[in-house]
């Protein structure tokens, strides 16, 4: 027997040590490709998500280097994706998603650089002469909101928004007029406290560089010769024809302008989960288009020639499309209306071709259109809640079990009515659950009874209120609309009674403190994962969704809140919250309460037993959740305080808060918050137990709507 050649012992082994990891990687890749093959129809739905990631990154990252780094990282990911096996779905998803993310970031970056309006650098008192670009009545606040282009004012922004009291509105005011008045212009307001509403960012993209309230007299140098817009005329006509508090709701249903709705009624609609009825969205656009198609089909059916020779559905769909586009333009082309119009046009196109077009692809197409033209809308509650609600409805409707349960069948009226009621309730609950994290993030409160209120409100609005209002407007053309308006008013009173009844329940809403962007992002990813996939992998999204919601609901509310101007301070006490200035307006009180997750009235700090207050100072004792005692010192006036007394009080306090610039010799034990600090940080929220301080502005934030701080001198 011959011995093997000596070289055999030095040859590589048949099973290499590195074969194991590569085999696992191949097996994992094959498993992913197999799963994606099952979900091949759903992959395209992630296109707007990829673009949205890039837009969100631009808002979250503070400056240009971060935005550029994100774009480079996205392109690097796309290049990495090309290294995967050719022809695989995962490869195409990674490459396309990364490129879309880069494009989304560049899109919003480019729009902000080219079309945004930088804010006014500092508050200024001027005599302003300007040309009126538009005007809008706000009856609930007794003002007229005017958009102006300043004339011969090089130091002012190109566009400012000014409120004029109804009593001061001169004759001849309107688009094209030139007016002159005195006003104190302010930069658009940033969030008062962390998690608050950021009007400055929205105003930047709307082209508003400053806001103010005009002082009388308002002088008209050149009267307006333009007639009011159709929307304004329709709004004024409805307000005149309907009496009582429901006039604002009637006007909002037709025009989308909510300026005539009182704050109490608007809050009741929000707490009851019926606020979506006030903004022109899918419900209104669908009802209008459906009514137009129904009428056109009925009219054309009267002609034998049309029935036998004309493409009735195509003609009716075209008429409905034109009506939807006109309604969208009439109501101001807001994001929900544009989304609904785009979706309706796709549905009508599908119906005209004999196809079922109501799918998640339709929703994704609408989202891409909105993001292409209005990328900044992504971070607003309107875009998020509108698309989340529609996505939830369509995803539920596409589920095989729900579709089988909701399918029409031959059964008695009682069973059919019960099934319809169950389907309506299920869709309402699904929408409420999907909207809950979005509402908690933006408004710090979410409805709990909205699904039940909508069981009555949606049919009431769709099949009674809107047809009656349309009939009343049509009858007004011949002067016979009064009876129809009376019936419409009674139906709206019923809707408003429902809203107030539900809102009065202690179970109507749940509140939570401000949710961080990281938790919110985790929650949104979980929601999208559950809604966009069809197979069992969709339930993996419950993990991030559950973690995000649990962390939000279990989060400890802040112990101290300070607004960006330093004038308003709220502290957490045993039974709620207390504020420094008892005379603070409703808006400030609501902002402080909502940001702290407090659903109740604010007490006055001066009335607390642990507070000692004078006309100039308040010393407050607080105890955190670990039992440690804290001492706060708050200034209340602009009066000069003796150095010896104030230095002693500063040294005895853990935190000193003032709306003035505090001197260097004021040295509290932990934190000094004054005008100079707040100019850099904006509003603050403080957790005493953890020693955490959250700010409105981040260090180095270079977003173009941020007003750079100016140095100030001490007033003490």
Explain this structure to me?
With 716 residues, this protein is α+β, with helices and mostly antiparallel strands. Among the domains are: 78 residues, no CATH class; 104 residues, Nucleic acid-binding proteins (OB fold (Dihydrolipoamide Acetyltransferase, E2P)), CATH 2.40.50; 37 residues, no CATH class; 136 residues, no CATH class. Helices cover 49% and strands 14% of the residues. The strands form four sheets. Strands 11-10-9-8-17-18 form a six-stranded mixed beta sheet, covered by helices on one side. Helix 9 runs parallel beside helix 12. The protein starts with 18 loop residues before the first helix and ends in a 21-residue tail after the last strand.
> Low-confidence spans: pLDDT under 50, at least 5 residues?
7-12, 711-716
Estimated structural class? alpha+beta
Structural Rg? 30 Å
Count of discrete alpha- or pi-helical segments spanning 4 or more residues = 23
The N- to C-terminal Cα distance equals 106 Å
Main sheet record: 6 strands, mixed
Number of strands: 18
- Measured as a percent range, the helix fraction is 40-55%
Overall shape: it is globular
Average pLDDT score: 86
What brief labels describe this structure?
single chain, 716 residues, alpha+beta, OB fold (Dihydrolipoamide Acetyltransferase, E2P), six-stranded mixed beta sheet, five-stranded mixed beta barrel, 23 helices, globular, disordered C terminus
Give the SSE layout:
Blueprint: H1 19-38, H2 47-60, H3 64-81, H4 89-115, E1 124-138, E2 143-150, E3 160-165, E4 178-185, H5 199-206, E5 210-222, H6 230-241, H7 247-255, H8 263-271, H9 282-301, H10 304-309, H11 312-330, H12 335-352, H13 360-373, H14 381-398, H15 400-406, H16 413-443, E6 445-447, H17 450-476, H18 482-503, E7 509-511, H19 517-532, H20 542-553, E8 560-562, E9 569-573, E10 576-579, H21 586-595, E11 603-604, E12 611-613, E13 617-623, E14 629-635, H22 643-652, E15 655-657, E16 671-673, H23 675-681, E17 684-687, E18 692-695
Parallel strand pairs: 3-5, 10-11, 14-15, 15-16
Antiparallel strand pairs: 1-2, 1-4, 2-3, 4-5, 6-7, 8-9, 8-17, 9-10, 12-13, 13-14, 17-18
């Amino acid at each position: 027997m011959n011995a093997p050649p000596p070289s055999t012992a030095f040859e590589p082994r048949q099973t290499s040590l590195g074969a194991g990891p590569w085999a696992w990687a191949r097996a994992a890749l094959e498993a992913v490709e197999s799963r994606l093959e099952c979900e091949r129809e759903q992959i395209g739905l992630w296109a707007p998500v990829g673009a949205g990631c890039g837009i969100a990154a631009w808002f979250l990252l503070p400056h240009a280097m971060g935005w550029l780094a994100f774009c480079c990282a996205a392109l690097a990911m796309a290049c990495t994706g090309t290294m995967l096996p050719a022809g695989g779905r995962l490869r195409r998803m990674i490459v396309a998603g990364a490129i879309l993310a880069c494009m989304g970031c560049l899109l919003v970056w480019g729009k902000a650089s080219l079309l945004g309006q930088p804010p006014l650098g500092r508050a200024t008192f001027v005599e302003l002469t300007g040309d009126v670009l538009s005007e809008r009545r706000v009856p609930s606040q007794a003002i007229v909101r005017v958009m102006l282009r300043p004339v011969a004012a090089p130091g002012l922004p190109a566009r400012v928004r000014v409120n004029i009291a109804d009593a001061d509105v001169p004759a001849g005011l309107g688009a094209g007029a030139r007016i002159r008045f005195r006003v104190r212009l302010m930069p658009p307001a940033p969030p008062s406290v962390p998690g608050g509403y950021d009007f400055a960012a929205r105003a930047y993209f709307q082209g508003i560089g400053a806001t103010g309230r005009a002082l009388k007299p308002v002088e008209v140098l050149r009267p307006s010769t333009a007639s009011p817009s159709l929307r304004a005329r329709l709004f004024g006509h409805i307000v005149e024809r309907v009496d009582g508090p429901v006039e604002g709701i009637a006007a909002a249903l037709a025009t989308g302008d909510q300026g005539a709705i009182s704050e109490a009624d608007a809050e009741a609609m929000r707490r009851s989960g019926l606020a979506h009825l006030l903004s022109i969205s899918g419900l209104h656009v669908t009802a209008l288009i459906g009514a137009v198609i129904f009428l056109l089909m009925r009219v054309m059916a009267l002609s034998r020639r049309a029935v036998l020779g004309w493409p009735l559905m195509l003609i009716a769909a075209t008429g409905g499309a034109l009506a939807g586009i006109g309604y969208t333009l009439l109501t101001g082309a807001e994001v929900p209306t544009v989304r609904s119009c785009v979706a309706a046009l796709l549905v009508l196109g599908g119906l005209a071709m004999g196809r079922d077009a109501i799918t998640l692809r339709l929703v994704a197409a609408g989202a891409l259109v909105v993001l292409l033209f209005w990328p900044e809308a992504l971070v607003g509650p309107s875009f998020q809640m509108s698309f989340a609600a529609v996505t939830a409805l369509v995803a539920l409707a596409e589920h095989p079990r729900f579709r089988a349960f909701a399918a029409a069948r031959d059964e008695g009226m009682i069973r059919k009515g019960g099934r319809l009621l169950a389907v309506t309730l299920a869709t309402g609950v699904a929408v409420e659950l999907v909207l809950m994290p979005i509402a908690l993030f933006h408004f710090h409160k979410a409805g709990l009874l909205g699904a039940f209120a909508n069981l009555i409100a949606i049919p009431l609005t769709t099949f009674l209120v809107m047809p009656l209002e349309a009939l009343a407007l049509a009858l007004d053309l011949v002067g016979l609309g009064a009876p129809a308006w009376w019936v419409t008013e009674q139906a709206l009173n019923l809707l408003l009674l429902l809203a107030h009844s539900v809102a009065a329940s202690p179970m109507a809403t749940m509140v939570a403190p401000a949710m961080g962007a990281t938790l919110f992002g985790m929650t949104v990813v979980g929601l999208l994962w559950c809604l966009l996939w069809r197979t069992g992998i969709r339930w993996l999204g419950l993990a991030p969704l559950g973690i995000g919601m649990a962390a939000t609901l279990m989060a400890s509310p802040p112990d101290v809140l300070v607004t960006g101007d330093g004038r308003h301070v709220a502290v957490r006490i045993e039974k709620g919250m207390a504020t420094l200035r008892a005379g603070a307006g409703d808006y400030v009180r609501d902002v402080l309460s909502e940001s702290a997750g407090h659903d109740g009235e604010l007490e006055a700090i001066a009335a607390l037993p642990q507070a000692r207050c004078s006309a100039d100072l308040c010393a407050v004792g607080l105890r955190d959740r670990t039992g440690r005692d804290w001492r706060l010192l708050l200034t209340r006036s602009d009066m000069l305080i003796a150095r010896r007394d104030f230095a002693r009080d500063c040294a005895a306090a853990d935190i000193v808060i003032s709306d003035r610039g505090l001197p260097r010799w004021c040295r509290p034990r932990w934190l000094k918050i004054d005008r100079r600090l707040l100019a850099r940080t904006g509003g603050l929220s403080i957790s005493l137990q953890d020693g955490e301080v959250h700010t409105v502005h981040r260090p180095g934030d270079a977003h173009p709507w941020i007003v750079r701080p100016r140095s100030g001198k001490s007033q003490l």
